[in-house]
Design a protein that fits this description.
heterodimer, A: 260 residues, MetI-like fold, 11 helices, B: 260 residues, 2 domains, 10 helices, 78% helix, globular
Amino acid sequence: MRNPLRRVLLILLEVAVPAAVVAAWWVWSANADSFYFPPLAEILRTFADTWVFERVGNDVVPSLVRLGAGFAIAVAVSIPLGTVLGLSTVVRRVSEPIIEFVRAIPPPALLPFAILVLGVGDTMKIFIIAVVCLWPVLLNTIDGVRGVDHTMLETARVYRVRGLERLRRVVWPAALPQIFAGMRTSLSLALILMVISEMVASTRGIGYFVLQSQRSFDIPEMWTGILLLGLLGYLLNAGFALVERRVLRWHRGARASALQ
Amino acid sequence: MTRTLGWAQTWAGVVVVLALAELASRTEVLPSRYFPPISQTFLTLVGQLGRGSFWAAVGHTLEGWALGLGFAALLAIPVGVAIGTSRLRYRACRVLIEFLRPIPSVALIPLAILIYGVGLESKVFLATFAAFWPLMIQTLYGMQDIDPVAVDTARVFGLRRSERLTKVVLPSAVPYVATGLRISSTVALILAVTAELVIGSAGLGREINAARAGGATELMYALTIVTGLIGWGLNGLFTRAERRVLRWHPSQRTVEGGAL
C-alpha cells in the first residue's frame, strides 16, 4: 500500500469503475430500444424538464416537509421517553413486551390503520413517518442511557450534580453517539415511509409522481422519479453523516465509524 | 425471587395496557368506530384461525419473505466475500455501493410492476433488493474484521489461499453474516408487506388494506397484530439461531437490530 503508484492506480480505479458503469448504461440503453429502459440521455433530459424546477414546489417540497416533520417529532418524543426508560428498570420492564411487539409490526402494515383514523392528508403521512422513526431512536437512547459509565454517574453523584443538570452534562453526552446511530437508521426509514405513504394515498409528492408516471406509462418520467429518490437518499445520508461528524467531533469512536 | 418479580412487572404492564385500551373503547374515550374494543379484535383474530383464506394470506406473505431473503442470501454473501477479500475489488466497488445502498427500495416499485407485474415476482424482487444490502455490508465488515494473528498463523503453517479463506476468514465472519441475516429478514418481511399493500400482491398486506376499505375494522386490527406476531416470531427465531450457532464465538456482540 505504500507504493505511491499503486495508490494512484487505486484512486483511478475508484473513479473509473462507476464511470464505466454509467457509460455502459448509456450505450446499452441508447441501442436497446426497450420500452421499459429508455435511453439514459432521454431520462436525463426529462429529468431536467421535470424537476428543474417545475415540480419542485408541487411534489418535492411537500414530500420533504412531511419527512422532516415526522422525523423531528420522532426524535423529540423518543429521546425523553428513551431517557426515562433507560434510567428506570421498573418502567422498562413494564413496557418492554409492548415495545417489542409494536416494533415488530412491519411499518407499512400500520398504514391502513393510519388512513382509517387520520384520513389521507398530511397528518396521516407525518404520523406514519413519526411512528416508524420512533423505534430506532428510542431503542438506541435506552441502550445509550443504560450504558453510561458507572464511574461517571457516581462521580456526578459525589459532586451533587442532579436532575436536569445530570442529564445534560453526563447522561446525554455519553449516550449521544448511540442516539445518532438510531437517528441515522430512522432517517432512511423516514424516506421509505414517505414514499410508501405517498404511493398509497396522495395527490402530490414524489412517491405519487413515480407511481402515477408508471400507471400512465410515462416511462422516462418514472425513471426520473426513481433517480430523484436515489439522489435524495444519498444526499440525506451524506448530509446526516456530516452533521454527525461535526456534533460528535469530541467522540473518538465516531471517527472510525464515519469511515463506513 | 427477583426473577418472579421481574416477570410479574412485565406481564402487569401488558395486562394494564390491554385493559386500558379495552376501557377506552368501551367508554368511547377512543371512538369505537375507529378503535373497536381489543377483546373483539382478539375474538376476530381467533375466528380467523379457522379460515383457509387467512392461512393462505399468511402463506403468501411468508413465501415472499422466504424467497426474498433466500435470493438475497445467495447473492449478498458471495458478493460480500468476493469484494471483501480483495483490496482492488473493494476499491473498485466502493463508490458504486455508496451510491446504490441509500436508494430507497420502494422507489423501485413502479419498475417492478412494469417488469414483473403485480404478482409474487414483484414482491420477491423488491424483498431481494432491499434485503441484499444489509447482508452484503455485514459480510463485507466481517471480511475486514479478522484477527491478523490468525491469518498469519495460518500462513506460517503453509495453508494455501483457498484454505485460509475456508478455515480462517469465513468462520470468523460468521457472526457478522448472522447479524446481517437477522436484519435482512426483518427488511424482507417489510418489503413483502409493502408490495402487498401498494401493488396488491396476494398476502396479509392486501388483506389489511381490503379490511380497512371494507369497513371491517376489527379484522384490520387483527391482521395487523398477526403481522406483528410474525415479525416478532421471525426475529426471535433468528436471535436464538444466532446464539446457538455462535456459542463457540468469544465475541457475542450485541448489535441493535436495524431495519430499512
